[in-house]
Amino acid sequence: MTTTGTTLVIGATGTTGSRTAAQLTAAGHRVRAAGRRATPVAGAEPVPFDWYDPATHAAALDGVDRVYLIPPLGDSDPAATMLPFLHQARTAGVHRAVLLSSSAIPEGGPAVGAVHQALPDLFDQWAVLRPSWFMQNFTGTHAHAHSIRDEGTIWTATESGRVGFVDAEDIAAVAVRALTDEQAPDTDLLLTGPEALCHDDIAALITEVTGRPVAHRRLSYEQMRDRLTTQAPVEFAAMLADMDRAIAEGAEDRVTDTVQRLTGQPPRTFRALLERTEERRVRDRPYPALRP
After folding, report:
1. pLDDT at 285
2. In b/e form, how buried is each residue of 278-290, taking b as 16+ CB within 10 angstroms?
3. Which residues of 190-227 are buried (b: 16+ CB within 10 A; e: fewer)?
4. Which DSSP letter does residue 72 get?
5. Cβ neighbours for 74, distance < 8 A, ≥ 6 positions apart
6. What percent of the chain has pLDDT over 90?
7. Residue 168 in 3-state DSSP?
């Protein structure tokens, strides 16, 4: 890795942002941790940042030469907010940008796909991370994790479609390389874990490792869309339901070698994540609902 200036990590307390900030600081890089509440992050400089409040942007960018971009959550048209910021970032001296997108969204596709398309024309050094679905969706604060803890159920319209679920730690490890290697990837990177699993497999693994019965309940596309509408804006809920339908049709049934190739380490398995999570639960007991 090369010596860098300062990296602005947007969403520095989120699933990949927190891990990226932690790995950067552990490697000795300077980090400005951006979030709406400027929450303290170990080893980093906290700074207030709100995508929808341009008054917070200039201070966040001051002295920064690279940026890790987490799009505004739940926004079906993030380009309208992100592109003005990215033009400002380039003017302020940012020369490398790494964008978190999704394996389900191609360049020029919906939502953050428009930002992906614009990035190479804005920055000489860039990368777009396109991870598959996060393993942490089943253990953290995602709706799946809540329904597992509260109901012992995973609700999807994915049928028996398989997904190369990826650990957020591996996404962060790739982000760190994309941000700090002497040569930026200058491409998009499709990230998966080591195996493709259906949601029946996920439920079975959770049951086996935690000892608590968990089942996958299959919904129709319409049922899933309506369920998501209670949790997210209508357009965003429809887009998420469309992604479930694409999984059912086989769109995510793949694995890649990207994590191994960029980090030199094999991607983590879902079983390994569950075992780590269960070890912490037994030690700290923060999740009583997970006990058998």
Report:
1. 66
2. beebeeeeeeeeb
3. bbbbbebbbbbbbbebbeebbeeebbbebbeeeebbeb
4. P
5. 232, 233, 236
6. 88
7. helix
Half-sphere exposure of 199 (CA within 13 A, CB side): 26
- From the DSSP assignment, how many helices (H) and strands (E) are in the chain? 11, 11
Determine the 3-state secondary structure of 199 from DSSP: helix
Residue 24 and residue 52: Cα distance in Å, rounded? 26
Give the bridge partners for 66, in sequence order: 7, 96
The number of beta carbons lying within 10 Å of the beta carbon of residue 111 is: 20
> What's the confidence (pLDDT) of residue 236?
87
Residue 290, pLDDT above cutoff 50 = no
**Angle at the Cα of 277 from the Cα atoms of 275 and 282, rounded to 5 degrees:** 90
**Based on C-alpha coordinates, what's the Rg of the chain?**
19
Tell me if the pTM is above 0.90.
yes
Q: Residue 110 carries which side chain, given as an amino acid letter?
A: P
DSSP assignment, residue 249?
T
C-beta separation of 24 from 179 below 8 A: yes
Nearest to 239 by CA among 135, 111, 107: 111
DSSP H or E run through 128: strand 125-131
Cα three-residue angle 174-176-182, rounded to 5 degrees: 105
Beta bridge partners of 100: 129
Residues 6 or more apart whose Cβ sits within 8 Å of residue 41: 12, 13, 18, 21, 22, 25, 31, 33
Phi/psi of residue 188, each to 5°?
-100, 150
